[in-house]
């Protein structure tokens, strides 16, 4: 039982990332009808928003400390971050330590602006084009963004630690009555899971309980009728593209302590996230979230040594196997709308 619970917990953080990226993908497909293969790059850009803020907060001034010497006997150079000079050593150190959570504030306007520029500058020209054209142009955009990040930040992963108070692990075993150290789970993975639930809940509440969201949902169901009512649905859908970009970006921001940001992390999640969307059902927001968590947990169980001993390499293909089975038996996905991807 402890092994089962541990695998469920291990699957929740990756499932949270799948669910958040798939949620943004579904928002874009449901509103604009665009298959956005650049969405994984938005996840990556969000992660590098956290990296950028960390670099900004650690910018330092160099002074000479005559009371100290280096290994050559010369006066030592002391680097003092500007934030510590401005706010004092304690508060400045705390701000640097909490750079990842603070990057949420930094990333929201940046990602919305990037999403708006992407939609207005490129994607709007492909609304009426075949999905194959949309895939090619957005995949090309993803490669361009990936290479830009590689040029400015390098090819190596950049460690971006969580705040110090969340760097340990929690003993779930003791809490649930198991032996000590039976179920050890990192604090930040729990934070990421809770954050994803809050973000997902916020998106659904926005769509369900606000006038803007209700108009968007109506436009997703019948765009022409909403337009005939005199509502500028295109403008609202453009804003939703920005919201979807922000969701992917925030997912990337908070994932940085789990997986150090690198220029190809967007591609690593992109294909899997599209599989999640297909399994959940193209156009179904609830299906995307449900499939994200289910496939994350399933992938975690498939990575168990006992399972891999029976079926070697199953952890690498299990999600694709599930997708094949779903597409053969239910082409619309678990909760997809009738007619979508059933032509």
From TrEMBL:
Alphabetically list the UniProt keywords: Amino-acid transport, Cell membrane, Membrane, Transmembrane, Transmembrane helix, Transport
Q: Where in the cell is it found?
A: Cell membrane
Which terms under GO biological process does the entry name? Answer: amino acid transport
Q: How does it sit in the membrane?
A: Multi-pass membrane protein
Q: Name one GO molecular function term.
A: transmembrane transporter activity
Signal peptide extent: none
* One cellular component (GO) term of this entry: plasma membrane
Residues annotated as transmembrane: 15-35, 42-64, 98-123, 191-216, 236-257, 269-297, 309-328
**InterPro entries per UniProt:** ABC_transp_permease (IPR001851), BCAA_transport_permease (IPR052157)
Name the Pfam families for this protein: BPD_transp_2 (PF02653)
Per the record, the similarity remark reads: Belongs to the binding-protein-dependent transport system permease family. LivHM subfamily.
- This protein's name: ABC transporter membrane spanning protein
Species of origin reads: Profundibacterium mesophilum KAUST100406-0324
At the highest ranks, the source species' classification is: Bacteria, Pseudomonadati, Pseudomonadota, Alphaproteobacteria, Rhodobacterales
